[in-house]
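User: Hey, my collaborator sent me this sequence without any context and asked if I could get a structure. I don't really work with proteins. Can you help?
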Amino acid sequence: MKRNIVIAAVTAAALIGGGTATALATTGDDDPGTTRQSDVRASGGDDADDRAGDDADDRDNSRDDDGGDDRDDAARASSAKVTAAEAVAAALREAPGTAVSAELDDEDGDDGDRERAVWEVDVLAGDGTWHSVRIDPGTGKVLGSETDDEDDTDEVRAALKGSSVDAAEAAKAAAARGTVTSVQLDEDGHYGDGRAAWEVETLSSGKGEQDWRVGLKSGEVTADRSHHSGSDRSDDSDDSGSDDD
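Assistant: No problem. I've predicted the 3D structure and written it out in structure-token form, which is a compact way to encode the shape of the chain:
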């Protein structure tokens, strides 16, 4: 009876600990001097398999996410017949003012469960009102416009004061590097050389997505050093000058 209690206790401890334990149990009350070993093994195989499976799933999901994003970006860019500059022009006809950003992105379609590519253009009107205008990248048609609330109006106006290059011109300047998928104002100069500039993203075959800065006054295109490694910058060493004086 005592032997059964000891073995049961050791078995429970081994199972809880997830390891292997060896218990010494007496053979009975009649022969107290004789002992034997009773091996109690609790394999961690199930837990290990679960962890390995979870890790593999995480890696697969990570690859799917990254690869999916790249494929989506390429698909949007290749299907867009309307350029960033043309989308900005269409948005300004709908909501006159200053275009501060334009991005080729996805939105839910009319049926609610199918996404479609769309240009989203943010415009700052003369009265300080912000407008978000959606442009069809296939036809240039205005799909809709909403009023937005922004709290950086003063910063944007200060950054653009005295500038001679607008969002459409910045997009045109960077178009030689690839298909422009985004252009936006970096008004506080957190990136690159610390000066306000247009930030432009392009997508091209063989080079993937690249980031550029376009000077607000000069229109000069330089590699965005906050996103590129040294090898990336070396490919554009001829564009490494400063943005604007």
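In plain terms: The chain is about 35% helix and 30% strand. You can pass these tokens on to your collaborator as they are.
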